[in-house]
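Technical note accompanying the year-one report. For the benefit of new consortium partners, we illustrate the data format agreed upon in the data management plan: each record pairs a sequence with a structure-token string. No post-processing was applied to the example shown here.
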Amino acid sequence: MNAEQVTDIPEFDEWAVRRAMRRAVWRGLLRTAAIVTAALTSLMVLVTLVSFGVSGVRGRSFFGFAYYGTRLAHPELEMKQDGNCCAAGPLFGLTNLGLANEMTLRFRPLGALNHVGTTTVVVEGDVSGEIHASIDSSDTPLIGGLARGRPTLSATAAYLQKLPEPMIASALIEFDGPLSVEAYELFFDKYVSVFEVPNRSAPVFLSDPYHEGTGIGVPVSWSSTGFGELREWAAGLSSADDAQLNRIGAPSSDVIKKAADAGMVYAFVVPRMPLSLARTLVATTGVRSVNVLDTAFDQDWQTRRG
């Protein structure tokens, strides 16, 4: 082989080798960073999807107990939801996988005084699913009336006769026997006029309000005769939910389901009515008792005409 045919071997370039090695290292680092970033992104997407899924399932269950359950447990309070439900915690619940929930409720006692102020309570559901709320309604007209027990019609009539005319009252009106929704609405429209009671959303009891001989610790009540939501929620209850219902102060699942399915009205509450209407109801056929819950002077009396 001739010397001219031998390819020249370039001299060793240390700087070129170092540059190549640096480029290789950087390419490796960038590739690793890209893989790690993609993995973290996928993990975050997965966590987000799982959180939303868990939050949706847990949120529906929480809403039922926190809203419907609390309403059943506290017929003495007018209740409204304040804000949204349900995921709680940093980053809209992502940090606890959507397991924690909360709902803000506003309460106002039903009664003749027409309480203007409301009490705000946050109902919380922890990651274990237990619901906690601190609602003190022991000193309310309806709770006081139920604690006194069922009065006789003659005793209520005598009490009403002693009250001065420019007063209004709240009362629990109990029927001789349970009425269907249709019969109750006919009674309500006939004897409780719009002029005397403009607010037509009277809370009703779907079981004996004094629960005598029923073995039921808490009577079943609802904010109106629209039982659709109650029935839909009650259909999904089981004995496994009784501990949760007990924590809230609501009746057991079996009691709720039976009352919701039957849909009979045992009694209703009129939060504000003139004494003349209370006296009329005491004398009305089909009424078993009229329990006056509280009274207040009617300041509108001084400007009333006719």
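Partners are asked to follow this layout when depositing records. The chain has a mean pLDDT of 82.
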